[in-house]
Task: inverse folding
């Protein structure tokens, strides 16, 4: 073992006990608390972000193809033919999306109508697997979200009236269609549960008099994180006047806000580690004052200024490493128990989930560990320089 490292370990202990000194434990504890708080918070934020991503993808196609200005697409079959042969496409289907009104008895609400082909829709989204009542059956029927069902006071088997606001047959009069409520779904996202009504595409075309036209083509791919690349490939193949949007672009504002929130949280909680770094500075300065005589003796035995600096650099760095490692271990254990036993519950009417989601990220752990050790190292520079600047004769005379 290096002599400097041996002396550094010795300075960590108290004079009368073999355990760490109180000031050393306080310095290590500050790093421990900062690292633990930062890692646990980032893991919880990762859990929320990934859970939200999964739930959004449950009701959103990975990629959609539409005409510019959202004009009706009459030649959607030609578009689907052009997409044949692309290996990353797992499923594709036409869809219609429009706004309308629905009524159940005296209860009325504005909704977004999604006209789909039931057999193909099951390959695109996960709505059919999130039914909490009834089935995903659109044969002369419809499927709505749980929040909308509560607003309309509707249950499976009720007759839902869907209205087309205007028709040009006789002036501007509304048209309506009666549908049986076949099922109620819960995707875990309020916007979907409270606004979306799934209908058979043929019924929507007939009600809104769109003929054979659709709003666009929805696509499911093999890797949801490569959709920006896939979108460019599709756009080059089908050309103008079509535009391609992926789920990341459609939900850009949501994920941008979450990313910004995570960055701000990282910066704010890193301040805890910086405060712990100042605690290391105070501890080392205190040790320099207490060990002035010992430093003078070491200098008289031939220790250079560089060796004296190394002693205190090693001492502060060891404190930072111990605090960082213990904080990482505590964070891993805490996240494991939070994720496994889920003893922290959340109000379901406020959040879209009822248990606290936790997902650890290796990149977050590495970033926090590097930042913590770097801050601890920087905190040692001033005390080390102060210890090295002591003059041997003055240090011994003052003692």
Result:
């Amino acid at each position: 073992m290096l002599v400097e490292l041996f002396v550094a370990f010795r300075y960590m202990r108290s004079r009368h006990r073999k355990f760490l000194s109180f000031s050393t434990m306080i310095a290590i504890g500050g790093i421990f608390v900062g690292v633990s708080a930062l890692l646990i918070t980032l893991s919880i934020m990762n859990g929320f972000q990934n859970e939200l991503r999964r739930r959004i993808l449950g009701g959103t196609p990975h990629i959609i193809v539409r005409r510019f200005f959202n004009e009706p697409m009459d030649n959607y079959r030609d578009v689907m033919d052009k997409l044949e042969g692309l290996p990353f496409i797992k499923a594709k289907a036409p869809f219609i999306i429009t706004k309308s009104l629905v009524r159940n008895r005296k209860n009325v609400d504005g909704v977004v109508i999604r006209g789909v082909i039931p057999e193909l829709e099951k390959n695109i989204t996960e709505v059919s697997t999130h039914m909490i009542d009834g089935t995903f059956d659109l044969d002369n029927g419809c499927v709505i979200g749980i929040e909308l069902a509560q607003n309309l006071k509707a249950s499976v088997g009720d007759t839902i009236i869907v209205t087309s606001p205007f028709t040009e047959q006789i002036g501007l009069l509304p048209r309506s269609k009666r549908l049986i409520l076949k099922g109620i779904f819960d995707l875990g996202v309020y916007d979907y549960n409270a606004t979306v009504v799934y209908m058979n595409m043929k019924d929507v075309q007939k009600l809104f008099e769109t003929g054979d036209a659709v709003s666009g083509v929805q696509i499911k791919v093999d890797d949801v994180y490569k959709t920006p690349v896939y979108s460019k490939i599709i756009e080059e193949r089908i050309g103008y006047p079509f535009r391609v949007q992926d789920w990341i672009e459609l939900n850009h504002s949501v994920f941008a806000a979450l990313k910004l929130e995570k960055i701000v949280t990282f910066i704010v909680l890193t301040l805890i580690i910086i405060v712990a770094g100042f605690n290391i500075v105070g501890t080392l300065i205190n040790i320099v004052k207490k060990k002035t005589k010992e430093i003078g003796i070491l200098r008289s035995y031939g220790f250079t200024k560089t060796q004296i600096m190394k002693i205190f650099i090693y001492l502060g760095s060891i404190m930072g490493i111990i605090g960082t490692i213990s904080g990482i271990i505590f964070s891993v254990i805490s996240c494991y128990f939070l994720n496994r036993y889920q003893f922290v519950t959340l109000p379901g009417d406020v959040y879209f989930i009822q248990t606290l989601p936790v997902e650890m990220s290796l990149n977050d752990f590495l970033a926090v560990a590097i930042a913590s050790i770097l801050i601890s190292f920087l905190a040692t520079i001033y005390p080390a320089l102060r210890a090295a600047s002591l003059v041997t004769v003055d240090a011994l005379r003052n003692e």
Remarks:
- The mean pLDDT is 85.
- The radius of gyration is 32 Å.
- Residues 61-247 form one domain.
